[in-house]
Amino acid sequence: MSRFLASFAARISVGESKRSREHAAKLKDRTLTKLYNARPAYGWPATLTNDELPAKLPALNLARAGTTVSPVDEE
């Protein structure tokens, strides 16, 4: 291998290992606990109760779908 190619390959492998270390450090910081604690989910306050959540989810799904709820006519 020419001296140029050997020098080029060495620089690439050094750069790759540096990027790999940086990437590994970022991944190490993304633990499940940290991701879980990075709430509130959906932009909702963390104070919502378990009874309030099921009432909000259908409206969120409809909003994401771009539709609205229309009242059901009772006959």
Explain this structure to me?
With 75 residues, the protein is mainly alpha-helical. It is 61% helix and 0% strand. The protein has helices spanning 3-29, 32-37, 53-65. The chain is elongated and about 75 Å long.
Short description:
The chain has 75 residues and is mainly alpha-helical. It is 61% helix and 0% strand.
Draw up the topology in text.
Elements (H helix, E strand, L loop, with lengths): L2 H27 L2 H6 L15 H13 L10
Which key terms come to mind for this protein?
75 residues, mainly alpha, 0% strand, elongated
SSE arrangement, N to C: HHH
Unreliable runs: none
C-alpha Rg (nearest Å) = 26 Å
Number of helices: 3
How helix-rich are the residues, as a percent range?
55-70%
Q: Total strand count, please?
A: 0
Strand percentage lies at under 5%
What does the main sheet amount to? Answer: none
Termini Cα gap: 86 Å
* SS content category: mainly alpha
Average pLDDT works out at 76
Which word captures the global form? elongated
